[in-house]
Structure formats: C-alpha cells, structure tokens
Design goal:
Structural class: alpha/beta
Radius of gyration: 22 Å
CATH topology of the largest domain: Rossmann fold
Number of domains: 2
Strand order of the largest sheet: 3-2-1-4-5-6-7
Protein name: Glycosyl transferase family 1 domain-containing protein
CATH class of the largest domain: Alpha Beta
Strand content: 5-15%
GO molecular function, one term: glycosyltransferase activity
CATH architecture of the largest domain: 3-Layer(aba) Sandwich
Largest sheet: 7 strands, parallel
Shape: globular
Distance between the termini: 16 Å
InterPro entries: Glyco_trans_1 (IPR001296)
Order of helices and strands: EHEHEHHEEHHHEHEEEHEHEHEHEHEHHH
Length: 415
C-alpha cells in the first residue's frame, strides 16, 4: 500500500503539526505534500527524514505574513489541485482549510483527517472580527465590500472539494458536526493524542524556564522586563490569532490582579501587546482593568521543556477560544494541572468540571473573572487530571488511524 500525506501548510508549529509528525512516524515512507513551508520547516524535514513536496507557492514572496491572504485568493486550492497522486494507493490529507482539495484518480483512496472545516470560509465573522488591520473603519468597509463575495465563492469551492473526499475522519465531535453541517458528509471520530512522555513529570524533575523573553509593563518607552514568580500566574498557550480571544484572559487577569503568561506567536500579537498596556478607564472610556507590575508576560515561542516548566508552575491553564479539540488542555492535565475553559467545543470532551477544571459560560472577560475569583487550584487532584488523559494516547491514535486506513483500503480492493 503506497501512501502519500497532505497538509495545509507548514508555516507554524502547533498541535496539528505534531499530529502530522505522528502520522509520518506511522507511515515513514510517505512523502508529505504541502502548499508552502517556512525556512524552519525546510530545515526540520531532513532531520525527520521527511520527503517534502511543496507547490508553486513556495516561490511567492512574504510566505509567512501573507499566507492567509493567499488563501482568500484561492492560491492554496490551486496548489493542492496541481499535485499528481496517480502513483499512490491512498492519500491521507490532514486539513483545517485546504489540503482536502486534492484531486485523485478513481483508483486512489482519499482519506481526510479533518481538524475543522476552514473557519476563514465558514465562520468568517468570528475569524476576522478582531483582526488588527480592521481597526481602521475605511479598511474595514473595503474589506467587507470585497470579502463577502469572495468568501461566498470560496465556500462553494470548499464544498465542492469536500465532495471529492472518499472518507472523512473528524478529530472530535465539534468538527464532526461541522463536517455534517457544511459538507453534508458523515465522518468517524478519531481523537488526537497528548504526548505521554510528559505524564508523571512534576515540579521536582523539571527545570525552571531558562529564558523568559518578553514581559509587559506600563512605562514611558513601551515595555519593561517584569516577571510574575512562583505559582501566582495563570497560563495561556495558543497561536495568537484574533479568533482565539486571548484578550479575554488579559483583561480578566488584569481586573483581578493576577499574573498571566502567554506562550505563542501569531498575527494578533501586536494588538494584544497594545491591549495589555491599556490603562483602566482610558481616554475612550473603556474599562480594561489596567496593568500592574509583572502581570502580563508574552514569552513567544518556547522549547518543549520551557513549555512544560511553565505549565508546572502555573495555577491553571486558561482556554478562551472555542477549540475544535484542544490538545493543549490535555497537555496541562497530563502534567497534573487543571484547566479553565470556555464552555464550548472540544473542551467539553476533555475537561471534567469540578475534577480536572472549570468552565466559564460567556466568551467575555466578565465571565472569566467570575470563574477566576472562585477558583481554588488546591481542590483539583493531579491524579484525576492525569487519569483523564489516558484515553488520548499516541499509541491509541496511531492504531485507530492505521486500522481505519487498512479497512478502507481492503474494502476498495475487494470490490
């Protein structure tokens, strides 16, 4: 059985990219096709013995900064349709936007592991609502004028692409519902995994974060280095995109006067930095709570060890977005830490209220403030958090995925 793997793009490194590496570990001879890859990924692939195939988009300028806008223009769709998979028995696409748009001949089976139908196309109000470039009213009106017909066309194209997939796998119940709603297709749920190597770690066998990079404090020249110490901080780990709603965590922690560390990079970082420095009751009449010394830290990208250390030192992980699944919440629980999550999406499948964490009901700062004010990290047993992670093992994920692929392959070849 000759297999190829497809992935949207290799620009960042997060949960989806970790899953990709696990799939390649399962099928080490499978080449990985992607629209575009960053320089970091081009260096990483030889180290992981990955045969990487990129498209014409690799030659476009400003790949990292303009990648999303290339997607709006349909360039990723053209990129994936340009690949030839005639020599493969099975193509496994891992998609949250574009990779499921490949074209295969009738004898080639296309299995799509769908993290979620593209939010850019199907949930554009949430996706673009708080983008920094839309703060200008004129730009916002122009964007709405051109994006409405463009996104409507992209949805039609995305729906057509989904009909070419032979089998869908959803990474959780929320994406399963979206696949049914947007594509009118059925899917099988195979949950992603949490790195089991972190289970059993605690503060006694983990190093303190060695390089705390960026901290935010009000000052005359912008920022100064300040650090919340000990376990007096909450933690956010996510890509800094507007729809992730990290601003909720910033405002809530400012209002109750507790520290917050933020791990991750993304297009919304500049806006969040400005937001963290807004004084209470500023000239526009907003009541954002203010910033006190050492409250908000932006750590950027960190190593795996630094991330583990940050989790081990925090009161709890805060999840402000409606995640499709949310592997980071499981990573925190694997390290014995509770999770405070917005009551929606994948968190409902992973967090047990009162045992491994708590929920806040409204996706706004006031809702999170109420939960934080009542939160006592001492009542959550590390053993309970760790036991919840057991059903999301890497071995189980790889076994279920491999069995699924073998089953559909045998089914087609026995026809």
């Amino acid at each position: 059985m000759k297999i190829a793997i497809c992935f949207d793009d290799l620009i960042q490194f997060g949960g989806a990219e970790r899953l990709l590496l696990a799939v390649h570990e399962l099928y080490p001879d499978a080449p990985i096709y992607t629209s575009v890859a960053s320089d970091d990924w081009l260096k990483r692939c030889p180290d992981n013995r990955i045969d990487l195939k990129t498209s014409f988009m690799q030659n476009l300028p400003f790949k990292k900064s303009l990648n999303r806008f290339y997607g709006l223009l349909g360039l990723h769709a053209l990129a994936f349709e340009s690949f030839n998979f005639d020599d493969f028995d099975v193509v496994l696409s891992i998609s949250a936007r574009f990779a499921h748009g490949i074209i295969t001949k009738p004898g080639t089976i296309h299995v799509c592991y769908m993290n979620s139908p593209g939010r850019m196309f199907w949930e554009q109000c949430d996706y673009f609502e708080r983008e920094g470039f839309l703060s200008n009213d004129l730009i916002k009106r122009l964007f709405q004028l051109f994006s409405v017909p463009l996104l409507s066309f992209r949805r039609l194209c995305d729906y057509a692409c989904a009909q070419r997939v032979d089998y869908f796998i959803a990474n959780a119940l929320t994406p399963k519902k979206r696949i049914k709603k947007y594509y009118r297709r059925e899917s099988t749920v195979i949950y992603p995994f949490v790195d089991e190597s972190v289970i059993g770690l605690d503060e006694t066998n983990s190093h303190v974060i060695a390089n705390e990079r960026m901290r935010v404090k009000q000052s005359n020249n912008g920022t100064a280095l300040v650090t919340p110490r000990g376990d007096d901080y909450y933690l956010v780990i996510t890509r800094l995109n507007a729809w992730k709603r990290v601003d909720i965590a910033i405002e809530a922690c400012k209002k109750i006067g507790v520290g917050l560390k933020i791990i991750g990079e993304g297009s919304d970082k500049a806006r969040l930095l400005r937001y963290a420095l807004v004084p209470p009751n500023d000239e526009k009449g907003r009541n954002d709570g203010g910033v006190t010394d050492g409250q908000v830290e932006f750590l950027g990208y960190v190593s795996e060890q630094e991330k583990i250390s940050a989790i081990l030192g925090c009161k709890a992980l805060i999840v402000t977005q409606k995640e499709d699944f949310g592997i980071t919440a499981l990573e925190a629980m694997a390290l014995g830490k509770p999770v405070i999550a917005y009551r929606a999406g994948g968190a409902l499948e992973t967090v047990i209220e009162g045992a491994t964490g708590e929920f806040f009901n409204a996706q706004e700062a006031e809702g999170l403030v109420k939960t934080l004010a009542q939160f006592n990290p001492l009542i959550y047993k590390p053993e309970s958090c760790k036991s919840q992670v057991a059903k999301f093992s890497k071995q189980k994920f790889m076994h279920q995925l491999d069995e699924f692929v073998k089953t559909v392959y045998d089914k087609h070849h026995n026809l």
